[in-house]
Design brief:
This protein is an alpha/beta fold. The protein has 22 helices and 24 strands. Bound molecules: ligand C2E and magnesium ion (MG) (2 copies).
Amino acid sequence: MTNERIKILLVDDDEDDYLLTKDLFSQISNLSYDLEWISSYCDALKVLSGCKFDICLFDYRLGEYTGLDLLREAVSAGCKAPIILLTGQGDNGIDIEAIKRGASDYLNKSEITSQLLERAVRYAIERKRTEERIVHMAYYDGLTNLPNRSLFLDRLSQALAHSSRYKDSCALLFIDLDNFKRINDTLDHRTGDLLLQGVAERLNSFVRSADTIARHRVRALASTVARLGGDEFTVLLTEIHSMQDAAKVSQRILYSLSNPFHLDGHEVFITASIGIALYPADGEDIDTLIKNADTAMYHAKNNGKNHFQFYKFSMNSTALERLNMENDLRRAITGNELSLLYQPRINIGSGTIVGAEALIRWQHPELGLISPARFIPLAEETGLIIPIGEWVLKTACRQKREWHRKDPVHAPVSVSVNISGHQFSQGNLVNIMEKILVDTGLDPSCLELEITESVIMKNADSTVALLHKLKDMGVKLSMDDFGTGYSSFNYLKRFPLDIIKIDRSFIKDITNSPRDAAIIKAMIVMAHTLEMKVVAEGVETEEQLSLLQDMGCDEMQGFLLCRPLPAEHVHEFLEIWDGMLINNEKP
Ligand code: C2E
Ligand code: MG
Ligand code: MG
């Protein structure tokens, strides 16, 4: 400590006393220091929370406050620096009180000499450091420097209290290295130690970066990696969103351990088994949670090692299936496994084809064709909807241009694209749209964006602004699945929509439920009053169509006309359809 420059804070409201203390410090020849003087209690409070000082000296008398008050504030603000209280004559008894409240020392101002001051400062700093070293030894593992079992239990109990208060979940991962004993025996113990250090390092750096995967709120506690002893480690993930987060982190831990370790000239391969227990699902107290994570870990070992296992078996298959599907979906984007079908839409009065809706499909190499209802929610949850949505927009715009280029007479007037709520709240949808329109050279009026009711209603104010921007670009806007959410007519008036698409669930019962028929009629009248067109979705029978026509519905889409078609068949369909119209063979 002799050569180190120490930062000293003096809080004293008496300038003469400050000058005196400053003078005393200046007489200490072998102490290198910076002295900062603060003269008021309130100003001192401001510097205490992120206290950067090596030592603080508080005068006992600070106007209407006392040095003991400041001491209390400093301790509760987490100030780590040792604190010395300076008392005056007649402040008897305060010394003991100060020590009880956490002061390192006290000095009677009338007796201070420079030697006394020097000794008090040096002792206080040294004592504090020794204390810290002891605490570190008590709470950290000497080999890996990770938190040990005691600190882990403490963190776990904090995390459970936090989760219970904020009603969220956390996951406890129990990690045990596979066949560690064999490595320890065949190499030597020193290599074994190096391996444990290496594992600790990977876990630590990995969990730090993985925190963002499993973290959904700013208020989060830090995740903790700990070594319980031997080759047993734990990872505590706080504020996880779903069990999927725990599965994802576990899989990545296994992956990060699968790279070889280079230890003292040896290349060592290691795997691990991980057991996962979730709070509160698998246990609401520390003991149960630990026991269940441990049990799950043993199952992972017994089932062939090198994998993770949830405590509840039912979770394993779901988590794995979802995880595989997520990985597959990532590959699908780049691997040409996604495609678009197009479902034509006609004007009911004239029978002419007015547009086609792009509907995504995923051709999975093993699972076959997967419908959007199965993978769009996963894409939304994982954020993959952003690249997927962009791909859909680009492909549909390009396709519309292509139909037009090939045969301007028999091309659908517009193409509709479904936009997910996540794309909508992403912020740069307008820029993406602009770029796609420029790149594909599509006339914006030939593009229609379908937005579901729930998305529009969720953030009504910000949505109105965004819808106006899109509208200003010249694209058309429709409200999809109308009637399934909670639209009020009042709201609807505020949105610059061109079209509402009445959800299939209403159309389905239109012929046998007078109530549904009445609702549809009201929707049509209301939409026309607001100068919007009405499209009926999912029309399957002639009866439905004829009722809709009587009600004044403008357009329709559904299996009655045709199922969604591959792009190349749309053109064929249009040619045939237009031919039938000309020959007056309209159904
Ligand atoms: P949606 O936008 O309401 O699309 C209409 C759905 O109804 C399509 O299902 C279509 O095949 C189906 N359909 C059309 N006519 C009939 C009919 O007469 N009877 C019956 N039973 N069904 C009919 P699909 O293609 O499975 O799409 C389901 C939903 O997935 C879509 O509902 C849309 O919300 C979403 N989706 C599809 N493609 C995309 C996409 O590219 N991006 C996003 N974000 N969502 C998409
Ligand atoms: Mg749609
Ligand atoms: Mg719909």
